[in-house]
Every structure is written in C-alpha cells, then in structure tokens.
Amino acid sequence: MEDGRRLPRSAVVDLGSNSVRLVVFEGRGRNPQAIFNEKAVLGLGRGLVSTGLLNEDAVEQALTVMVRYHTVARAMGAEPVEVLATAAVRDATNGPSFVARLRERLPDLIIRVLTGEEEGLLSADGVLLGFPDADGVLGDIGGGSLELVELAHGRAGRVMSLPLGAIRLAERANNEIARGRAMATEEFNRVPWLPEAQGRDLYLVGGAWRALARMHIAQTAYPLSIVHHYVLSREEARDLAGVVMAATRRTLDRMPGAPTKRVQDLPWAAMVMRRLLRASGARRVVFSANGLREGWYARHLESEERQRDPLIAAARDLADRFGRDPRLLPALAQWTAGLFERESTGDAALRVAACWVSDVGSHDHPDYRAEHAYFRILRQPGVGLDHHARAFLALAIALRYEALPDAAFLQAARVLLDVAAVRRAEILGAALRLAYTLSGGTPELLAGTALEREGGRLVLRLVEGSGVFAGESVMRRVEALGAVLGLEAAVEVAA
Question: Which InterPro entries match (predicted)?
Fold first, then answer.
C-alpha cells in the first residue's frame, strides 16, 4: 500500500441501549487486534419502557458521535465499516426514523438492526474465538436486553432474547430490586433448555458484568487485571452479587474498581447474574471480554483461520512481531519434546507455545529483556489464553532470559500457578536458555544438537564440526537443566 501499511483494517460500531462504541481492528488473524476503541455512554434506551421511544437527547448526541466514528474509521483506512444496532433501536417506535436520519447523514455507512437471535449468535461467535470449546450457556447483557445462547462443546445452539437489560429491567421494576427479581425469575422460566447447564459453565458478556469482574479483581487483589478468562466459582459469584445488590449508591461509588458511569446499573446486573446462576445451575462464571464486536470480526475471517488453535495463534503472532527467525521455533518444539515424562496434551500445547514466544525479547535492552518479555507475554492481547497459560508462558520465558528466580516482578505468575506448573516452567526456561546458547537463535546450529533423557541421565548430544561445542557456558547450562530435572547431566560428541 502507498502509506506503507500492510495489514487490512475493519471497523464496527456497537450501537447499544446504554453506550455506543467504535472498535477498529487491524489484520485478519485468529486473535483480534483492536487498534482503536472509543465509547460514549449516551443512554439511548433510557425511558424506552415508559415512552416506547429512544431518548431524544441521546438521539442527537448519537448522531454527532456517529459522524465522528465514521470519520475516524475512514481516516484510519478501515473497510468495511459497519454499525450494529441492538435492542433499543429495534424496539423503539422511532427506531426506524433514527436509522433513516443516520443514513441521510452517512449514506455510505452499512447499518444493521439486529434481531435478538442475530445479536446472540454474533456474541456467541465472539465468545468462541476466545473459548473454542465453550460448554454451557452464554449470557450477554446490555442496557435493553439479555441474550442467552446454548453452547455445546464449541458450538452455538438455541438462542433466547429476554427483556432483562439493566436499564430496561430497572424501569420495568420501577427501580425496586425485589420486583425485578421476580421478573427475572419469570423470564428465565420461559427458557426450557436453561436447566441443562447444570454443572457446566456460564459465560458472561457485557459491560455491566465486566464491571462486576473488575470490582472483584480490585477487591481481592488478584494479581492480573484482565477480565477476559477471569473465573469465579458459583459461590464467589453469588457472594459478589449479594454485596453489590445490598450496597447503597454511595457505597458502590466508593468500591474499588466500580465504574462511575455504570454504578446505577450494577445492582441490576448483579441481580440478573444471581438469578441466572440459580436458573441454570452453572458451576462457575467465566467472564469474556469478547462478544458482539468480536463476533462481527470473526464473521470476516477465513474458515481456516477461525479453526486455528488460539493458543498457538497468539504465540505465533508474538513471534512474528518480536522474534528473529521463525524457522527456529518449530524446531525448538521438537527439541524439547522429550523433556517431560507423561506430558499431558495441555502441557504439551503450553510447551510448544513457549517455544514460539521464546525469542520475543530479542530486540529489547539486554538488562531488561527478562522483565520486558515477561510482561509482554503476561499481558498480551491473545483472546484464547486463560490466566494460567499467560502466567506459565511469561514465567518460562523470563527464566529463559535468566530472570532471578525470586525477582519481585515474577510474583504475579507464581501466585497464578501451582507448584507443578512452576516446576515445569523452570525446566522449560532452563532448556530454552541452553538451546539459544547452543544455536545462537538459528535452526542450522540447533540441528547439530539433541537433548535426551536416558534413565537417570540428561544427555546433550553434539555433532562434531556443526558449529557447536561444549564450552563453559554450555556446560554450565546443561548442568543447570539437569539439576532442575533431578538428573545427572552429560555431554556426548559424535563425529
């Protein structure tokens, strides 16, 4: 392209009952890369229950905001640019006239007024980008509606749209929580398949529910401030909901992590979450930052791209951006394959992913490589990484760059991992440190080496004349790897 930009961009506007948000994505990869994200809280659906109309003041603001969003998206080179209008616009009697006014101002803008089913299925596509094997029920709460989607081992099934959005429910119940609770119970009783989620997971999407997750993260001093993949047990979620429902507005304002512009919606979102837990019998709550907008993005991906493993896709994205030689990384995966006895499928996937991200600090200042690589991996935008995977990969690569084992910045990862996982990360970090010492980061030199376990011995085999030899640094590192494995280390040279 003339401007030097190589990756395509696309943009979507989520025109909701409470907020309007523009997201610009870059690329067409398995992990959405949002390079611009702006939200305006307008309350377009406030008053809809009593008037049947969109909030007139918010309509004028929405038109102004939409002109800005369209201008920003086009200036950033996004194509396509599309607006997804949800419950407020589809239910208001003046919704069609609002859309007409919007089309008059922005005639080339694609505007879709989604049905409840379409909204739910788009949200499901977004969730499945981050949770490809999701099993249970998806709940996506907005200001005007709640979409429920059945998820069965990575596939979306039945959909139900209920009038249980935080704004609408508060208005229907005349701001009385007890009345709202009865209404929510009645609505959930209309969903015959909801009890089938007994003992499975409840995947929660929507700004009000994400706000509850952030509050819990802040209040419990959880070591990673990332809502995506944050998990609460059934009991923890019920307790959180109970606290928020019982709190006064003043108390909510003072709670750590509470969003100022959403405080009045929080008790309603908490109550719906608690009723949904009861109706579904779900064993835990899993929060997703992915939803409608990411589902829209997913619909623009090639089928083959959508089917890629999200963990490996995220690792390869980092390798492409920060590594030196991508040819080395699959070779490293093979080189480390014999390190662990009885390696589970999940542990093997993490090992391979660690190999892919093992060179992401190559361009950093040498005095800070370990720390920079650690935080780059821990906080990466990969949507398929749960918090355990982030912590494992970050710790392993920090140790590959010779971070001190008791370095303060490693504490978050150590808190998130159990003893067995920490030990695997230590082993893998030591092995990768040895591999890069031997190879200089090139597959040609690594090919002249092999690492094998033989009974109680760890044997490093070197091919004479291949450019590698057992110098002092190699010996030191193979002995360190043997020590962490609890094996006697040996080096053998073959002609």
Answer: ATPase_NBD, GppA/Ppx_hydrolase, Ppx_C, Ppx_GppA_N
